[in-house]
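Kindly review this protein for my students:
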Amino acid sequence: MASYTFLMDVGNVSLTDSEVTSLVKISVTGSGFSLVGTMLSLCLICFLPVTSDGMFILINMNISLIGAQLALIGAENSFESKMVCKTATAVIHYFFLTLQFCSLSFGLHLLSKLKSPRFLEKFHKRVIVLAICWLPSMIVVGLTATLRGDTYGSGTLCWLTPDQGTRWAFVGPTLAIQLVNLNIFGLIMVTRFAMDIKRNYGLRRVLKNQVLTAISLVPVLGLMWTLGLATTFGVGKSVQYLFVAFCSTQGMWIFLGHVMTNGHVRRLLCIKIKPENENEEEASITNGISNDVTYVSQISEFVEQPRD
């Protein structure tokens, strides 16, 4: 099995055999935790259920993450057959790119709530979400397989080779999405900070809100993939270890850092635990404001009125 460093390496990484083995072990272990986290997130979202646009994007993100990690784990059994290896490469390429575009979709979702546009109905918004999440990666994979078919899945492992710049078909879109999401993240953090200052919060509370907001948003915006730059440019082996550790466990971070701290999820979970208050509480939530960011970062510009 390849480690996560293989995904972002364009031929500049020089690792010893022991380091590669360690990174593979971290990737396998982390993927196990991530799969548990994604399944818990999906079960919780479907059990409650949560119908906000943010959680709809999160469902797509978790599905793509499950597909990506299962494909990466299973690709090690595809070495002997050239055609199967090419297919495995296409599947890995597609699902990991879809994961990146899901992160972009979530970032654009937050940005749209900051600007508060009201010209799209929920159905149309979700069609756009599905298009952003799943279609661009399909186009990139199709073009790569067509234009670089001779190098597609022809390396020592079932992944894009660095020959003729083929691996940039994944690294390029990923870095571009990271740049967009980093700017959105910075805008949200500044907005959170400005609101806390306006409300005359103490320094301790301001810093706490900043940290908790960052913990909530980093996994869903996929910002840990920024650490992959160390792999892309072959610098900072310690950063490469952090990159593998955080990215391979992304599903668990999404569950702990975003789903379980989401105010809407917590309120609905309380309803399920206390069914005697079900009718009154459900009416309150249906007519109230749902928070798509997190319980600890309720920025008024980001919330939306449910339109069920």
In short: DSSP finds twelve helices and no strands in the chain. Residues 186 and 214 are 10 Å apart (CA to CA).
